[in-house]
Write a structure and sequence with these properties.
Helix content is 54%, strand content 25%. The protein has 4 helices and 7 strands, in the order βααββββαββα. It has a 4-stranded antiparallel sheet with strand order 1-2-3-4. The two termini are 21 Å apart. Helix 1 packs antiparallel against helix 2. The protein is α+β, with helices and mostly antiparallel strands. It has 2 domains: 63 residues; 82 residues, PH-domain like, CATH 2.30.29.30. Strand 2 and strand 3 form a beta hairpin. Pfam families: bPH_2. This is YdbS-like PH domain-containing protein. InterPro entries: YdbS-like_PH.
Length: 164
């Protein structure tokens, strides 16, 4: 007999999209600075012509990928869902290639929240769930929700452990 699993219903907040986009912008800016530095070195040190051509081709290829990366972040954010009950933590992500994960509460070894500088600015935290099979994360939840979810997962995991 199969137990029906409900669809995950909770979405990520809009602030987590801002964090994702800002992270993409920072990454793209660093890559552009590296390209700029290499172009300056190519000009100053008169490197062989083929190096300049390769740099130009790589730059031309990089720019569209930076734009596509922005749109991918927005689309992925819109399709991210999570939920939790006594049996499972459920994660769903992806627009084109959807990935559904059911994490049995009985298999959870640890759960923690993490916060980097961008998440701190927007008062968000990432919830990380660790099992023997690997790590799973829910990015960018408001601090109160992240702590509540962490505590709820820990309480269910402990209750299941005591029942066994």
């Amino acid at each position: 007999m199969e137990t029906p699993v409900k669809e995950p219903k909770y979405k990520l907040p809009k602030e987590s999209l801002r964090v994702g986009v800002i992270g993409d912008i920072i990454f793209d800016a660093i890559i552009l600075l590296i390209f700029g530095g290499l172009f300056v070195f190519d000009y100053l040190f008169v490197w062989p012509a083929w190096i300049g051509i390769v740099l130009l081709i790589l730059f031309i290829v990089f720019v569209p990928f930076g734009v596509i990366g922005y749109f991918a972040t927005v689309i992925d954010h819109r399709n991210w869902r999570y939920d939790m009950d006594e049996e499972y933590v459920q994660l769903r992500q992806g627009a084109w290639f959807q990935k559904d994960q059911l994490i049995p509460v009985t298999k959870i070894q640890s759960v923690e929240t993490k916060q980097g500088p961008l998440l701190r600015k927007y008062k968000l935290r990432k919830v990380e769930i660790e099992t023997m099979a690997g790590e799973y994360s829910i990015p960018g939840l408001p601090e109160k929700e992240a702590y509540a979810l962490r505590n709820e997962i820990a309480a269910y995991a402990k209750a299941k452990e005591e029942d066994d």
